[in-house]
Design a protein that fits this description.
Elements (H helix, E strand, L loop, with lengths): L1 H26 L2 E8 L1 H4 L4 E2 L2 E2 L13 E4 L5 E3 L19 H11 L6 E5 L15 H15 L3 E9 L8 H21 L7 E5 L8 H10 L5 E5 L14 H18 L8 H21 L1
Parallel strand pairs: 1-6, 1-7, 4-6, 7-8, 8-9
Antiparallel strand pairs: 2-3, 4-5
Helix pairs in contact: 1-8, 3-7, 5-6
Length: 291
């Protein structure tokens, strides 16, 4: 019996070694983060009456280790505003993405080059992000382009959305169900069922049902889904969008949440990962049954 166990362990060790080579090669690429949601993710920090003041705080300065996938699906050095060619119908300013990235790099140099994939569009409700929608498909297209453009791993989705769902009581009531479905679907389509998701609980809203949506966000109970709370942070004069200083705070909070998770197996080419996990699951189940 123990000889059989030993042989199975040797087989598994060989498989892990092969998979580790593939994983190590992938790590030579980028650590990719998808930025999605609506205007507070796209960034309105410093934007007043449709004009951005141009101020970039130290926490959001460009860094040669931080790249951005532009609208033409090409990597370039990231600089604010990150969503300037993605959320094109509105003026973009400071969002949480650069503060997040610089904060992560300050504390984890081993993460390597960070690749940001802006996907957020202002004024969108959760229904517009459902599977098969234009925004959903655009997110998947950009995510795949990020993986194929020099390789790398998708480390997490950074999600800030929900203000538009505070207008209708019906939308607010259905928000939790729709959000869970979105997280589950996008993880499935990215072949990573436990991909970290860092979401932000609303600081504001467009309608009277902010508390209903916030409650839904704070109650999400899925593996590797963390929620940071923006309530009480400084808003722009419009009373809806976070100020530049508040965006820096949110970015750093999201970095804290991500570093607490640090998923051991981020998204990569799914072939080796699937074999590896399937074998391990089979072996553990067999071992428990025998002993």
């Amino acid at each position: 019996m123990y000889s059989l166990v030993w042989l199975m362990l040797l087989s598994y060790s060989s498989l892990v070694s092969t998979n580790s080579l593939s994983h190590d090669n992938a790590l030579q690429g980028k650590s990719i983060f998808i930025l999605a949601g609506q205007s507070n993710m796209a960034g309105r920090g410093g934007v007043v009456n449709g004009t951005w003041d141009g101020f970039i705080p130290p926490e959001c300065q460009s860094n040669p280790l931080i790249l951005r996938l532009n609208a033409e699906l090409t990597w370039e050095t990231a600089r604010e505003p990150l969503h300037r060619d993605i959320d094109i119908l509105k003026t973009c300013g400071i969002g949480p993405g650069m503060a997040f990235s610089n904060s992560v790099l300050e504390r984890d140099l081993g993460i390597g080059v960070i690749g940001l994939v802006p996907c957020a569009i202002g004024g969108t409700n959760i229904s517009e992000w459902r599977r098969g929608s234009r925004l959903y498909n655009q997110l998947l297209t950009r995510a795949q382009a990020a993986l194929h453009g020099g390789g790398g791993l998708i480390r997490a989705i950074l999600w800030y959305q929900g203000e538009s769902d505070t207008v209708s009581h019906e939308d607010a009531k259905l928000y939790k169900r729709r959000l869970v479905k979105f997280f589950t679907d996008v993880r499935s389509d990215l072949l990573s069922p436990v991909l970290p998701v860092i979401q932000v609980a609303l600081a504001s809203g467009e309608g009277p049902y902010v508390d209903v949506v916030r409650k839904a966000q704070l109650e999400i109970d899925l593996p590797n889904v963390k929620c940071v709370d923006a309530k009480g942070l400084q808003l722009q004069p419009d009373g809806l969008h976070l100020s530049t200083a508040a965006q820096v705070t949110v970015g750093r909070m999201m970095a804290d949440a991500f570093l607490q998770i640090m998923a051991p197996i981020p998204v990569q080419s799914s072939a080796h990962k699937t074999v590896h996990n399937s074998f391990l699951d089979f072996f553990l189940r067999w071992f428990r049954w025998i002993f």
